[in-house]
Predict the 3D structure of the following.
Amino acid sequence: MSTQIATRPSRASLFRQLALKDWTLNQWPMLAYMLCGLVSLFLIASQNRLAYHSGFVVLISAIVVAGAHIVFACVINESNNKTLPFVLSLPLTFLEYSVGKMLFAIGTFLVFWLVLVGGIFLVILSQEHMLAGTLPFFLIVMGYLFVAFALTLSVAMIAESPAWTIVVMSICNISISIVMIAVGSIPSIGGSMEQDTPNWNVAAIGLLSTEALLIIALLLGTLFIQSRKTEFL
């Protein structure tokens, strides 16, 4: 008589299965947001001033909405739908679950963000009527959107509260225009936007470096707080 020995799934296998589950549930909305973002690049490439500004608005909106979807679908809804107890019944610690959830959320948003940022660079550098001096400004604004996503994700994972997540997300979205005005008012950045070549000066590099450090700090801080939690449900 043959006997079957049940093998315990590895943590890597569980991470893959959970990531595949999240992607399966969210792939079509994310592809729709990506399509909107790609359409916005065609508008930005237009020589029509109204189409240019409309494209930039659509681009920012696509990134913001995609980030919000990731946070709510992968973090908040899982808590609201009471699926967390099942996930924690798997051979994973709460910290490992948090790391897996964060890696999927950040990874998905990063791919989305990189495609659209790369598209901006391609459009500006390939179109003769576009001024390459705007690249530092655009990249700093896109970097702020990434910081806003990381902050919203951190609040969602730590607080597990739709209300607090919406409050933080709203503040970040409202402040986008303020950030754009503030960055454009910096002489070494705003004054270089009419140039044919990008000016990667100290101010631009400093702001981009600060944004990168903020993202890293938010993610590491979130994982630290998650590791200190004693109540998970």
Observations:
- The chain has eight helices and no strands.
- The longest helix spans residues 11-44.
